[in-house]
Amino acid sequence: MHIARTGLGVASATAVAALAVTALGTAAPAAVPHTLAVPAVAGHTLVHGVSSPLTSEQCQTKWHINCYTPLQYRTAYDLNALYRKGVTGKGRTIVIVDSYGSPTVQHDLDVYSKQFGLPSTKVKVVKWGHVPAFDPKNSDMTGWAGETTLDVEMAHAVAPAAKIVVVETAVSETEGTTGLPEMMDAEKYLIDHNVGDVISQSFGATENTFPGFDKGDFSSIKKLRYAFQDANRKHVTVLAASGDGGATDLKLDGKTYYNKRVNSWPSSDPLVTSIGGTQLHLNDKGERVKPDSVYNDYGSGGGGQSHVFTRPSFQNGVKSKVGARRGTPDVSMSAAVNGGAWIYSSYDPTAVGWDVSGGTSEATPLFSGIVALADQAAGHRVGNIQQALYGLYAHRAKANGIVDVNDGTNNSYEGVTGYKAVNGYDLATGVGTVDALKFVPALAKASRHG
Description:
- By secondary structure, the chain is of the alpha/beta class.
- It contains twelve helices and 19 strands.
- The longest helix has 20 residues, at 139-158.
- It is globular.
- Mean pLDDT is 88; it is low at 1-45.
């Protein structure tokens, strides 16, 4: 779903679903210096805590949207043949980082898994700092609990045998001063202690909101890169949501958008793989009824040029699109709310049940599952995948499982003109999306890290 920036403008690219009732409460009063995560469609109570998931046809009749199960995603992304070969993420660990977490995350994953006939998995929770007791009346906490639920259930949907570690930080994300350092510290600690093969980050902060940006001083961002530099050395893959504001994003107040093209960190960091958003058009079996589009409904897939980072060498092959700057996203997965994912939650006793979520914070954990599968297939971590990803795109992309998104839809949003999905790489969907049956072995083979 679309996100709110928590903090002096941080996006919790939080999918606390556009449609997730659990996240539709009003934000708690903002304490200076940060604003709290607010779903983009607060007020659009389209899907309440429903007692059981509905078919897409029923969702269309009732709410005029499509809603998808993990079984549909498995068909759409060509995952079932991999599972039959035993490639399920076994022996690999996905790390998910969220403020506060959810007190019911294990129970909710168990219910979710049982509903769709999936094996569940043990969720290990790591508390970083003095995480306060969960208060279901605190909308900041329930917003993050919704994000945590979505992250865990989407990662599990793709890599059902992978271990999941949820890192709960003690403060909500705030722009570069409180929040992001805690998240980076937690990530570095886990990397240094060899916990996790891929890190999924469903949060981001507009580059322009960091201290010093207006004066051309990017040190406040660059000083936060230590976890990613560590991950790069230890061959841990780091992913981040490209955001849900299209070619623009939120200002410091966390509510209003820039009237120009901007980008967000950590998605814009060259050490991070930026995950953008698509809209899937599926029937109830999960088969495509038409090609994927750009996510652009209750939010829009983030993408564009970084104002902080210059073009990294892995994007030299797409310099006609990115220019002299780092371009995002790199690759995209399902994120549209019209075509959102069913998730189950019970952390809010007033809204126990099934909700529909979307956003690039859905796409990111989906792709973390893809990476975990590639790690297992390779027999080792694939690590920083950027060179491999763009190499696979440049040479026989289709045979390597890279699926172009080129239907001409765009990520224009909030009055700011975005970018069109055209043939090849673009700043709406990156290299496109993936056919996992081909992409997973290709990525495993392309990775050189032992």
